[in-house]
Amino acid sequence: MEALNHFEWECAICDETWPTEHRRVEHEREDHNYCSECRKTFTNYNNLKMHLNSRTHRGQQIQCPFCRSHHTTATGLTHHIETGSCPDARGLTRDTLYKFVRSMDSSGIVTKNLIGWHGSTQYEANDRSYNWNRQGWECYLCHRLCGQLSSLNQHLNSPIHQEALYHCPNPRCGKDFTTLAGIINHLESESCGCTRFENVQRGIQGMVGGNRLITL
């Protein structure tokens, strides 16, 4: 069968055949960046992987423990809570969420042990922040230009200029992140090979379900 290429399952792109459907699908994905369910070819494997992890294939199986809304990925749920978008968890902020995660991560797998940290720094710009030469409100930390003073203050108090609270558990990676959603998105991407996408989804469900231990 192998010599004559006479297996039952034929690739949709080339003339290769396979003994099982699983091996055919695996071949189409890895060698052709092809999704057989959607009959769609992608420019590279990373784009295919993002498609396979999207709502199209995974639905919305992760439920918010507060408002019961459903999300496709762990990043989506975390961003929903961390940014104050959850109507039933307005009191949760980046700081309180960090303290909660830190309490379940005594070994410091993903959280940083910040001695002397007392919360996010609060910034406030005034009229003197307007740069007449550049015709806009200028951030005095990164020199980004904003169209309105309120936009500048929103930028200043976003996680961009806050201390990194999390780190990638892969010592060969070493990246730091200012938000929980940021590190979860990094782990979901599998870019540093620290863990698999599926493990992150199981981990977030265990966390919101009451599991008191963070593992990879």
Walkthrough of the structure:
The protein contains eight helices and eleven strands. Helix content is about 35%, strand content about 10%. With about 220 residues, the protein is of the alpha+beta class. The longest helix has 12 residues, at about 20-30. A hairpin with a 6-residue loop joins strand 8 (about 135-140) and strand 9. The chain has two domains: about 10-50, no CATH class; about 60-120 and about 160-210, no CATH class. The chain has a three-stranded antiparallel β-sheet. The chain is elongated and about 75 Å long. Helix 4 (about 75-80) packs antiparallel against helix 7.
For the structure shown, list the relevant keywords.
216 residues, three-stranded antiparallel beta sheet, elongated, disordered C terminus, 11 strands, two-stranded antiparallel sheet, alpha+beta, 34% helix, single chain, 2 domains
Sequence-ordered SSE layout with sheet pairings:
Blueprint: E1 9-10, E2 17-18, H1 21-32, E3 34-35, E4 40-41, H2 45-52, H3 55-58, E5 62-63, E6 70-71, H4 74-82, H5 94-103, E7 130-131, E8 136-138, E9 145-146, H6 149-156, E10 166-167, E11 176-177, H7 180-189, H8 197-208
Antiparallel strand pairs: 1-2, 3-4, 5-6, 7-8, 8-9, 10-11
Q: What percent of residues are in strands?
A: 5-15%
Overall residue-averaged pLDDT value: 87
Measured on Cα atoms, how large is the radius of gyration? 23 Å
DSSP strand count: 11
Instruction: Give the neighbour order of strands across the main sheet.
Output: 7-8-9
Give a quick account of the main beta sheet: strands, pairing sense, barrel closure: 3 strands, antiparallel
Form type: elongated
Low-confidence segments, given as residue ranges, are 212-216
Helix content: 25-40%
Alpha carbon gap, first and last residue: 41 Å
Q: What structural class should be given to the helix and strand makeup?
A: alpha+beta
The number of distinct helices, counting runs of at least 4 residues, comes to 8
Q: How many separate domains make up the residues?
A: 2
Secondary-structure element order, N to C: EEHEEHHEEHHEEEHEEHH
